[in-house]
Amino acid sequence: TEDGDPEALRTRVADLLAASRARSTALTDVVDESDLVAQHSPLMSPLVWDLAHIGSQEELWLVRDVGGREPLRPEIDGLYDAFQHSRASRVELPLLTPAEARTYVAEVRDKALDALGRSPLTGRRLERDGFAFGMIVQHEQQHDETMLATHQLRVGAPVLHAPAPPAGSPLPAREVFVPGGPFEMGTSVEPWALDNERPAHTVDVGAFWIDTAPVTNGAYAEFVDAGGYDDPRWWSDAGWRHRVGAGLAAPQYWERDPAGTWFRDRFGVLAPIVPDEPVVHVCFHEAAAYARWAGKRLPTEAEWEKAARHDPATGRTRRYPWGDDEPTAEHANLGQRHLQPAPVGAYPRGASPLGVHQLVGDVWEWLDTGFHPYPGYETFPYPEYSEVFFGGDYRMLRGGSFGTDPSALRSTFRNWDHPVRRQIFSGFRCARDASGRDAAERGA
Ligand code: AVJ
Ligand code: FE
Questions:
Q1: Can you tell me the distance from the alpha carbon of 356 to that of 213, in angstroms, rounded to the nearest whole number?
Q2: CB of 80 closer than 6 A to ligand 1?
Q3: CA of 386 to the centre of ligand 1 (A)
Q4: Cα 59 to middle of ligand 2, angstroms
Q5: What's the predicted TM-score (pTM) here?
Q6: Which end of the chain is less packed: N or C, by CB atoms within 10 Å?
Q7: Would you say residue 2 has pLDDT above 80?
Q8: Does the Cβ of 415 fall within 6 Å of ligand 1?
Q9: Which ligand is closest to the CA of 386, given by its number?
Q10: Taking Cα atoms as reference points, which of 49, 29, 27, 25 lies closest to residue 37?
Q11: DSSP states of 390-440 as a string?
Q12: CA 367, CA 306: separation in Å to the nearest integer?
């Protein structure tokens, strides 16, 4: 970190703003106008909406609030307010054209950089440690991941390309034992942590077993091929209703060829599923059904964070599974470096002290916990980020995916979505309770 050097912080913020804009530009320049304004799915906005919405949020916080400037285009505020228009209806709005949206975001960026030059990056909470800038970097990267999911829904010749991820390696065990006891969850010190990650607080978590790696395509295909989708025993009532109503039969984008081999469509490329890659594009209900079929359950959010951050040797909660250092390409599959989850065992350097792999990156992991504030939560800086979603029909997702940028992810970062959603890059791993004997044998 910059330890109070405002110039170093300014440079880092400017670099992160430039990187997020390069990503937004790449995601919107590789398709033509008709693709930018099209509705690729009622679950998603047209790409051109995301682009202008990115600019609109940046204008609101960095140009108007931090910069103290007049609105550039006050008449468009309502169009890009996510609460005024459902994703499905945005295609009908009189949106900025792609050319207008590009001009708009560039003008906003000029003024945001001017605000960055003038802000003391200290003083009031919004500007302290560059928080408002960090929030806007994360916001743009979040929408870039959303746009990547829209690309996955788009039909047509492939336009996105990336090198294959590193190869997998054998893992020493299928499950890891996590001893019971308290740990510190959440954070009070990460400068750019969002309101729902705060404050740090102690949570007592009983001993449990957690899968060493996310559930793979191969394991999930066994569940499908064993008739898992036809047996209500494995599904909750709500899950079964959704399974039947939506006609779910396999993960989204999977299809079987006449010989019975599973293929998946990924960014326009059809290929056989790879057995040792984490399964992706399953909803919470599918994840929970698989877990029950396997004789397990999904982890809770506290269990996931304890597995990811608790160091049993020191009792300390760390920033990442591998320690306190920022993620690199050796630690985790993040940042759209690859366009897919990496095979199990691809990131030995990213493992936790207890030997849990790939908690960060690859696929968002569904957890059996709803979205609630931590004790001591305070809304900051606006209720529409977190507060309005507390207690809704959501399940938590943790760890980020191959499409999540490291600047928008911490081990404390909390994501949530409806339990039926699966166009996101969502997978899971399983957990199970430890018996008294497990704990006694391990001296825990
Ligand atoms: C935190 C990922 C659920 O994308 O809906 C973007 C983030 N909030 N713009 C989302 C967000 C406002 C949000 N998630
Ligand atoms: Fe947004």
A1: 7
A2: no
A3: 9
A4: 12
A5: 0.98
A6: N
A7: no
A8: yes
A9: 1
A10: 49
A11: TTSS-EEEES--TTS-GGG--TT--EEE-TT--SSSEE---EEEPPHHHHH
A12: 13
Tell me: the pLDDT tens digits for 117-149? 999 999 999 999 999 999 999 999 999 999 999
**What is the CA(52)–ligand 2 centre distance, in A?**
10
Number of the ligand closest to the Cα of 50? 2
The CB-side HSE value for 297 (13 A sphere, CA atoms) comes to 13
Tokens of 419: 């339990």
User: Rounded CA gap, 127 and 134, in Å?
Assistant: 10
Q: Which residues of 16-54 are buried (b: 16+ CB within 10 A; e: fewer)?
A: bbebbbebbeebbeebeeebbbbbbeebbbbbbbbbbbb
Quote the tokens at residue 165.
Answer: 């991820």
Query: Residue 270's Cα: distance from chain center in Å?
Result: 24
Taking alpha carbons only, the member of 427, 423, 409, 403 closest to residue 336 is: 403
pLDDT category of residue 390 using cuts at 50, 70 and 90? very high
Express each pLDDT in 372-386 by its tens digit. 999 999 999 999 999
Query: How confident is the model over 396-432, as pLDDT tens digits?
Result: 999 999 999 999 999 999 999 999 999 999 999 999 9
- Expressed in angstroms and rounded, the spacing between residue 286 Cα and the centre of ligand 2 is 27
Put the strands of the sheet holding 208-211 in their side by side order.
Answer: 175-178, 208-211, 431-433
**Pair type for strands 426-427 and 364-366:** parallel
Burial of 443 (0-12, 13-18, 19+ CB in 10 A): exposed
> What band does 328 get if pLDDT is binned at 50, 70 and 90?
very high
Beta carbons within 10 angstroms of residue 144's beta carbon: 26
Q: What is the DSSP string of 356-379?
A: ----SSSSEEE-S----PPTT---
Q: Whose atoms come closest to the Cα of 138: which ligand?
A: 1
Does the complex come out with an ipTM higher than 0.95? yes
Give the torsion sign (CA, 269, 363, 365, 28): negative
pLDDT over 70, % of the chain: 99
Distance of CA 5 to the CA centre of its chain: 31
Q: Is any atom of ligand 1 closer than 6 Å to the C-beta of 416?
A: yes
**Which is the closest atom of ligand 1 to the Cα of 414?**
1
Average pLDDT over residues 61-72: 98
Residue 1 has pLDDT above 60, yes or no: no
